[in-house]
Every structure is written in C-alpha cells, then in structure tokens.
C-alpha cells in the first residue's frame, strides 16, 4: 500500500513584495499552478517568485491548523515562525558523520551519482572531504529515523556552496530537502555569507532538485570556484 502523502504549509513571496500562505500535498505542482495563474485568486493577480519557507505535516487537518496559526502571526514574525521546526516534526542537528546510518546514506548518495554522471563529472563529497575545515554538515531526523542530510561549504569572500543534499528514500516528498535547504540558507546568513551557489546534475533524475532550488530563488549561473563547463552539470546561485 502506498503511504499517504504528507501535507505542506508554505509561504510564497509574490512579485509585488507581498506574501501568500497556503497548504498542499504536492508543493512542486502547487507552486507551478500559482506561477501559471491557476492557483489562488490572490496569486493570479500577484504571481509568486519563490517559496520563502515550508513545513511538513502528516495530514491535511494538522496542516490546516498550522495555516490558521501562521496567518495570525504579524508579518514580521511569519517567516521565523514557519522556519522553526515543531516536535514531532523534522529536527535538524549539526554533525553526524560518525553515525553508521549517516555513513550509509552518504554511500548511497555517491553510488546514485555514479548512475547518472561519468566519474569526472561527479562532485559529491566523501566522508573525509566532508570533515574538511570550512565545511559544516547537518542531518535531519524524525524521531530516531534519519531523514536526510546537507552541508555548507565556505568558499571565501562571502560565498558559500551547498553540498551533500540527500533525502533518505523512506522520507521522499515529505519536505525534508526543503527544510534542510531553508536551514542551510539561514545558517549561511548567520555566518555572514552573501551568496549561495550549488552544482547539481543535468540528467532527468535531478529535475526535482532543480525545481526545489528554483522555488527558493536560485537561478542558473556560470561555473564558480574550481568548476568548469560540463554537460553533466547545472550551476545555480542566489544572493542572501
């Protein structure tokens, strides 16, 4: 039996600078509908440019209750309220590279990269490189279950790079990657970074990642740092 899909409470930034909140069980499809003018009446007149933040809930009822709570917050507090995980939702923790479950997830990540890109075009980091100075690693948990991971690399001069974004297969399409991305963006801002960039694959298997980053304000860019043009790579960036 297919498990029920999680519901997402989301906050959009619209073209006129206003914000719009809603709930959905398919964030990618709902965002695309808003952009195409097939979403809510409000966004038909004020198209969204990105998802500011989202939070995942197990069912529609709990997402609806949270939406009501979010809409009661003043604008100055809405974003911080939504970005704060609530138990028993996702918990994001620093570190975890010594945990066998994390090691297994990273090994699976490297193996999957090899299915879609040739060796010279794989830029995922192994355990030793994830321990390097200037790199912070984070894990996402639901209770005792590992849900995903992500890392932030300081490139210098106010520029950071996203690395090792991975969701455990049992937690796909439940908002894990979006929560990790929001957390890493907030961490980058707290560290004083002014720009955040990433490299990801160009194969169809990476399309969900492309959509996730685009929803959060990332746009295509030229290779950065030590990267070079590569048909197997896509580069994206955004200011913070």
Structure description:
34% of the residues lie in helices and 30% in strands. The chain is an alpha+beta fold and 240 residues long. Helix 7 links the parallel strand 7 and strand 8. The chain has two domains: 7-83, GIY-YIG endonuclease (3-Layer(aba) Sandwich), CATH 3.40.1440.10; 91-239, 3-Layer(aba) Sandwich (Aminopeptidase), CATH 3.40.630. A seven-stranded mixed β-sheet has the order 4-5-6-7-8-10-9, with helices on both faces. A three-stranded antiparallel β-sheet has the order 2-1-3, sandwiched between helices. The termini are far apart. It has helices at 27-35, 41-45, 60-72, 75-83, 100-116, 127-130, 176-190, 207-215; strands spanning 7-14, 19-24, 48-57, 91-94, 135-142, 145-156, 159-167, 195-201, 219-220, 233-239.
Give descriptors for this structure:
240 residues, alpha+beta, GIY-YIG endonuclease, Aminopeptidase, 2 domains, 7-stranded mixed β-sheet, 10 strands
